[in-house]
Amino acid sequence: MSELLHDIPVRPDCRFFRGDLPCRPNKEHGYMCGDCPVYEPVTKRILLIKLGAIGDVIRTTPLLRRLRQEYPGCYITWLTLTPAILPQREVEEILKFDYASALQLQARQFDIAINLDKEKEACALLLNVQATSKFGYTLRPYDGVPWPINQLADHKYLTGVFDQLSIGNTKPYVQEIFELCGFDFRGEEYVFDTHDDKGYDWSALPPAGAGPRIGLNTGCGDRWTTRLWSTEKWIALITQLQAAGYAPVLLGGEAEAPRNLELQAATGAAYLGTFPLPQFINLMHQMAGIVTQVTMGMHISIALRKPTILMNNIFNPHEFDLYGRGQIVGPNKQCVCFYRGSCRLGTSCMEDLPAEKAFAAVLESVPLV
Length: 369
Known about the structure:
- The protein is α/β, with parallel strands linked by helices.
- The chain has helices spanning 24-29, 54-58, 62-70, 99-105, 120-128, 154-161, 163-168, 173-180, 231-244, 257-267, 277-285, 296-303, 355-365; strands at 3-5, 8-10, 45-49, 75-80, 93-96, 109-115, 130-139, 146-148, 213-217, 247-251, 270-271, 289-293, 308-311, 326-329.
- A six-stranded mixed beta sheet has the order 5-4-3-6-7-8.
- The mean pLDDT is 91.
């Protein structure tokens, strides 16, 4: 579709057209709309609202594969609190959630709008945005309650508001959000950037001859501290890995740095420090397998298609799809603190997850060559 402005053809329906700045083909090659060889008309405009947390944003990316398949030539706008975690080359427009973004989105028209968050601000945006079809959660204007916009969202909504239904759920998160959008889940993998093109230097890592590198993501954030494993357990696992011929590498952010330094001093395991998120992702990409609790590191590991040994206690294990790579291991006694940040019994049942159990899962998931 071409429009004339002072007799100059302009094609605002092209996926490259910006309107406020020159498009990339114009900047790089001097192309103009009238005779542009890379003109690509948009067939559907899709808004995807998934604000946070980072791990949930990562595990929403399989939707990109299905949306591309169902709507060839679509233009996807993703609104999030963490734009840096998304694969920049795979989403046409990535917006950080703020007043300016919310203002302009409410002035636009979309063919499809999807909101996967029950936060009221996200629900309010779906309520007010103009779209032919809407999926996910909206806001009830009378009482301000987040609410499923149609029956497709009922299942995921109900498991989020009633613990009994969440405990009994047998569907992985990715399957739930696919069904919420009207799709059947076919095992679509995450869409993720390994950042291999950044040229990071990992010469300080154990060399290939030292054995398969096993990343140990030792933290779990500050919200669900019932997931934490004791320093003694980590030392026991590291010692067993080293004795078997693996090369343990300690991973984590600023919060995990003191513990990782302690573990390094006690075991000699490799620890390279903390890094910006893209570099941390690429560091994880150097691993043959990852041991982690339910945390951002778990989502990154799954996205990188690494064998993932997931230590879980307070969450429904059906929620996590490891795509056939790795294992979920839990304590030897039943956890009674479903989605709780502190243990009802005083001592977290993670202390009943022996290091031997995690080691056996590593041995089975990342065989020694």
